[in-house]
Amino acid sequence: MPVDAHVLDQAGEYVGELLVWTDRGATLAALEYAWVTDEMPTSLPPVGQVKVTVSPAHRAGVNKERPDPLVTA
Questions:
Q1: Which end of the chain is less enclosed by CB atoms within 10 A, N or C?
Q2: SS3 for 27?
Q3: Side by side, which strands form the sheet with 27-35?
Q4: How does pLDDT run across 14-64, given as a tens digit for each residue?
């Protein structure tokens, strides 16, 4: 997926990220929670703690082979 999904704690500090793995870009194949804290999380973060942004390379139009389902004209 051409997005960054950073996980922030309640103070707004970066504590990890969600990695979205797809099968040919369409079907969700896996969801991984990578963390940078000393203790492993016991659950996925609340939606309000996930900051999703489109990656800069994708926003610039580097991937022109396929139409972008995240960007509307």
A1: C
A2: strand
A3: 27-35, 14-23, 3-8, 50-54
A4: 999 999 888 876 788 999 999 999 999 999 999 999 999 986 765 555 555
